[in-house]
Amino acid sequence: MSQRVSRRGLFGLGAAGAAVVGAGVVASNTLFEEPPVAHASSTSDPFPFYGEHQSGIVTPAQDRLHFVAFDVITKNRAELVELLQEWTAAAARLTQGKEAGSYGAVGGAPEAPPDDTGEALGLPASGLTLTIGFGASLFDERFGLADKRPAALADLPKFPGEQLIPEISGGDICVQACAHDPQVAVHAIRNLARIGFGKVSVRWSQLGFGRTSSTSRSQATPRNLMGFKDGTNNLKLEDADLLRDQLWASAQDGSDWMAGGSYMVTRKIRMAIETWDRTSLVEQEQIFGRDKGEGAPLGKKAEFDPVDFAAKGADGQPYIKADAHVRLAHPTANGNAHLLRRGYNFVDGSDGLGRLDAGLFFIAYQRDPRKQFVPVQMNLAKKDALNEYIKHVSSGLFACPPGVRDAGDYWGRTLFG
């Protein structure tokens, strides 16, 4: 089996990078044995693929997203396991800046389809992470998994005001690709779909740009398409105690195979951009409960000043109203529930009526959606002043297994093995 120089090799590698290239194909147990690190040194560099937890969760959020949900069309359990093994091998290569298959885009037999689609040739790893999750629909009679469905993977309730479109909701398996280059993210999803031909089909997908949350204290807080800083009080990778309590599933939760994993909720939230843009600044700030410029809680001066819900203005009224988004989403209003958010802005053209089809593709990880996302979202759906300007049109819930330990492991081994 031939060995090929990685995409990153085309940009020049230091000694450490050259060692990775020389280590061989993905079957080698030594290919990615560097100790895990929280940060890539630049936006071009790779993140480790192997580890206790999947990358792409607490990894510092990248700038671009390609998210896909698949339906499994094979009814053969062995074929599904084989696909997960093939996907894992490809993901291990792709996240390190290599091509999807060992022969790459041009190294195989000319008479055969290439091992890689080729549109990322010459591009660096760009911080690519790939994160897999399993939807509740996978745990049916097809693969003998019904008794392994975690209690925390319970169907989400119907929330007031949501207008979900079934065709862009749910799915048996999801893959989240995040990178600093959109072509790298799209290339990764395209190649996984190519490898899965005949075993899975794409149910729906979503492109995202401009992360709307920071997942590390090293990152500045980004803005959503309403112009406000988003996710100021998000869980961060530095919050070790909170991550253990609120993010990572444990064997004590009732599903041994999910220990070290997490539960992902996705929601596509369409924004009434044009209506919002005609709303006064003071009303916009009252709806969010923060000032638009600095991101400070109303009544405070700096973004990270503690929110004081009891503080009142000169008129004797609370600075932060009862229906303000920040009040209703705060852990103190939801039984101390925290979420780790990794959302992205989206603009999917226009709706044909002169309005942008735009908004937020919300992604949140947690230990148990029943205790975290569900109460937070129910609180918001019932009372949030922001509801006048948004509607939820897509929903997904996925169990994301623990990380891949080494080259002999694969996505979902704890479930299928």
Helices, by number, come to 9
Strand-residue proportion = 15-25%
Radius of gyration: 22 Å
Instruction: Determine the fraction of residues in helical runs and give it as a percent range.
Output: 10-25%
Got a strand count?
9
Overall morphology: globular
Report the span from N to C terminus. 28 Å
Major sheet summary line? 8 strands, antiparallel, barrel
Pfam families: Dyp_perox_C, Dyp_perox_N
Function: Involved in the recovery of exogenous heme iron. Extracts iron from heme while preserving the protoporphyrin ring intact.
GO cellular component, one term: cell envelope
Organism: Nonomuraea jabiensis
Account of the protein in words:
- Its cofactor is heme b.
- Its main location: other.
- Residues 54-209 form the Dyp-type peroxidase N-terminal domain.
- By secondary structure, the chain is an alpha+beta fold.
- The chain has a domain at 8-209 and 405-416.
- The protein is built from nine helices and nine strands.
- It has an eight-stranded antiparallel β-barrel.
- β7 (344-350) and β8 (356-366) form a beta hairpin.
- α2 (77-94) packs antiparallel against α3 (182-195).
- The two termini are 28 Å apart.
- Mean pLDDT is 91; it is low at 1-38.
Defining traits:
417 residues, alpha+beta, 18% strand, EC 1.11.1.-, iron, Deferrochelatase
Strand and helix map with partners:
Layout: H1 15-22, E1 64-72, H2 77-94, E2 129-135, E3 173-179, H3 182-195, E4 200-211, H4 240-246, E5 262-271, H5 273-276, H6 281-288, H7 325-329, E6 340-341, E7 344-350, E8 356-366, H8 373-383, E9 390-400, H9 413-416
Antiparallel strand pairs: 1-3, 1-4, 2-3, 2-9, 4-7, 5-8, 5-9, 6-8, 7-8
Helix pairs in contact: 2-3
